[in-house]
Amino acid sequence: MKRLWLTILLMMPLAVLAQQVVISGTVVDDKTGDPLGQVSISSGKVSVVTNEDGAFTLKLPAMPQHVRISHLGYKTRQVSITQERTEGLKVRLMPTTIQLREIVVTNEDPRQLVDIAIKKIPDNYSRVPELLKGFYRETAMKRKHYIYVAEGVEDMYKTPYTRGTARDRVAIVKGRRLLSQKSGDTLGVKVMGGPVQAVIMDIVKNREFLLNKEELDLYQFSMAVPEYINDRLQYVVKMDPKAVQTYALYHGKLYIDAERLAFTRIELSLDMSDRGKATQTMLVKKPLGVRFRPRELTSVVDYRYEDGVTRISYLRNTFRFNCDWKKRLFATSFTATCEMVVTDSSSDNVMPIASKGSFDSRDAYYDKVEYFMDPAYWEQYNIIEPSESLDKAIQKLVSTYRRN
Predict the structure, then answer these.
(1) Of the N and C termini of the chain, which has fewer Cβ atoms inside 10 Å?
(2) Is 284 within 8 Å of 174 (Cβ atoms)?
(3) To the nearest 10°, the Cα dihedral for 57, 58, 59, 63?
């Protein structure tokens, strides 16, 4: 079974497209007014997601008639776009209401439902090679302060879903990173795999991770209350460990489109009941004298249906852990995240990415990209807008770096 790993290391301080249309705004809950993060904003095959403040910027080659805005548990909206209405949009999403008849919509055995969805993968997902464009970001926080930020645009070559992931490749198009220069922040965090998470965490395609008989037999399944995604009813199957293994298992939810029986969302949370096993899953290496205490490892993988094909659209991994030093009285909390959004896709005349030019899962993303400097670095690319707190942290880290 493939695992998500962290490496803890001591680190020493260290032209715009002419016709581009920029659409920006925020998405909030219609009832509470609270910002909504990870909302999908799309026009055709081009898409982004909102940040934790609900903000988004979508860059398109031509003026669209509308953009589609969708989120788990909310009614999908089509927002009209005009020359005078492209920026500063405020979109309110209404929560969906699950009717009683939908709660008892199926008497299917939940494990059998999962097995049927697995068998239908060749029908529901791409049968031809595709080249996906994506934006990737990884961050590390010490308590509530950012100490590391890296982000980049990547190309992802994916073979048909009837094959495995052996020939799937990721190449960095452009990337940058920052590391805190404070001596007290020299405990750095590197997420193993980096941008290759788009290959490893495509759980529907990378069947070795979870969706195979040997792994699924380790879990018990139950039906949860259905949800809506893109105004389509989803069966929700809960899974929990039922066997004792030498490694940590997961708690999870599998969202399956009620009509197409395609996986549309997968949520996983590493079982923390045995801290030793959780540590083995999360940690590869740490400095001498540091005690590592895992707190959380969660993953979300979203898939989007477009033009008759379901494909990966977004993923996010979150690692939370404490580190305490033998000579210090209190432990220090750390949070590491990596997220990727697919911003575009193509299946026309797609060529594989050569192994020599691809990013290897053993590589550290930090070592492959340059420092933050140019404020217009991403001007022509679709990205996940930095949250207000992250944006302030980036400015502060850049300022500190320039002074050193």
Answers:
(1) C
(2) no
(3) -120
Which pair of structure tokens corresponds to residue 237? 């199957």
- For every residue of 300-336, DSSP letters joined together read EEEEEEETTEEEEEEEEEEEEEEEEETT-SS-EEEEE
Place of tokens 């991770």: 209
Would you say residue 12 has pLDDT above 50? no
Which class for 362: exposed (0-12), middle (13-18), buried (19 or more C-beta within 10 A)? exposed
d(CA 196, CA 365): 10
Using alpha carbons only, what angle is made at residue 135 by residues 40 and 63, rounded to the nearest 5 degrees?
55
Q: Which helix (H) or strand (E) holds 135?
A: strand 130-142
Strand 77-80 to strand 66-70: parallel, antiparallel, or no bridges (unpaired)?
Answer: antiparallel
pLDDT in tens, 231-243: 999 999 999 999 9
In angstroms, the Cα distances linking 42 to 27, 50, 70, 232 are 13, 11, 9, 17
Q: Is 398 in a helix, a strand, or coil?
A: helix
Q: Which of 138, 137, 171, 202 is nearest to 382 (CA)?
A: 137
What SS3 class is residue 196? helix
Amino acid making up residue 129: P
- CB-CB contact of 216 with 111 (8 Å): yes
Contacts of 91 (CB under 8 A, 6+ apart): 25, 26, 27, 28, 69, 77, 79
* Tens-digit pLDDT profile for residues 140-198: 898 888 988 989 999 999 999 999 899 999 999 999 988 887 755 555 444 445 788 88
Can you read off the two tokens belonging to residue 269? 């949370």
Q: Which of 44, 49, 99 is nearest to 72 (CA)?
A: 49
Amino acid at 285: K
Name the strands in the sheet holding 332-346, side by side, starting at the edge strand that comes first in the sequence.
219-229, 232-241, 250-257, 263-270, 290-306, 309-325, 332-346, 130-142, 145-158, 169-179, 370-371
Q: CB within 8 A of 334, min separation 6: which ones?
A: 140, 141, 142, 187, 189, 319, 320, 321, 322, 323
